Amino acid sequence: MRVLITGGSGFVGQRLCQRLDEAGHRLLVVSRDPEAVKTRLPGGADIRRSVLDFVDTPPEAIVNLAGESIAAKRWSDDQKKRLIDSRVNITRDLVMLCEQLKASGSRVPKVMVSGSAMGYYGDQEEREVSEETSPHDEFAHRLCKRWEDAAREVADFGTRVALLRIGLVLDAGGGSLEKMLPPFKLGLGGRFGTGKQFMPWIHREDLVRAILFLLDNEELEGPFNGSAPRPVTNAEFTRTLAKQLRRPAIFPVPAIVLETALGEMSRLLLTGADMRPQRLQEAGFQFQFETLEAALADILG
Ligand SMILES: NC(=O)c1ccc[n+]([C@@H]2O[C@H](COP(=O)([O-])OP(=O)(O)OC[C@H]3O[C@@H](n4cnc5c(N)ncnc54)[C@H](OP(=O)(O)O)[C@@H]3O)[C@@H](O)[C@H]2O)c1
Known about the structure:
The protein is of the alpha/beta class.
């Protein structure tokens, strides 16, 4: 089928495009710079600058992943606006695409899997978190809520919508792990603050499999937690990563240092949620990497 992907050039999107291509699907990718991202995508991908450029090539499915990186810069008011706009505006374009397709009598996409994040729940301390847990109101929650609300609007045109609240995506060659590895390899790693905050994580390969699962299963809609069944605290993550690398991790970073250096963005490192993939598991999704040990062993060899 024809699948339109926003954010297809990113860390998750590239692997998703590869898997979709291998499965024989046709790729329609939206990128701000089609020329620049061509080499990161499978040869046959049709890459265009805007969602609405695809009105003449109606997709049967959509995966919406585009957005300014949440950890790129301190969260000034301008940066917060950029984080929201970069997600909400392209999502609104997707709604407009569905509207235009419907108005012109073309087929509307059957399904849209739209990105969201564990940040939807905000800080949940030690509470176990399912898709039903009430969120804590803070910037990360408001960002995800606006992104999800924008995505839900495609349902007005008959498209099934699944919202994937993604945990920390782990794999080689990008994402958070790439940033964490250098200090840990030097034996300079350590927990952040008390280390008690939860870090729901997912192997990139399982995340891509979960996206394909949501695309395929016609009865699945609404929010889904996209993280492995066995989340860990930051202290456990630190210990497991250090053990895998056979290095000590004895340099904790005090909360005050992170708060001073990163401002409000330090909440990404100092708070979390014990997020469980309840709805994916109820639907029968099988994770290939259930434990962090197994995921890191696969990734770091
Ligand atoms: N990786 C994680 O650990 C993680 C965790 C939770 C949630 N998520 C969410 O899942 C999505 C995919 O994650 P990822 O790690 O693959 O992200 P990524 O590598 O940062 O890629 C996101 C893509 O979005 C596009 N983009 C970046 N800045 C943009 C802007 N200002 N305006 C419009 N488009 C922009 C880029 O595509 P072009 O340059 O081609 O336009 C980029 O390739 C993201 O929205 C992210 O927030 C990721």
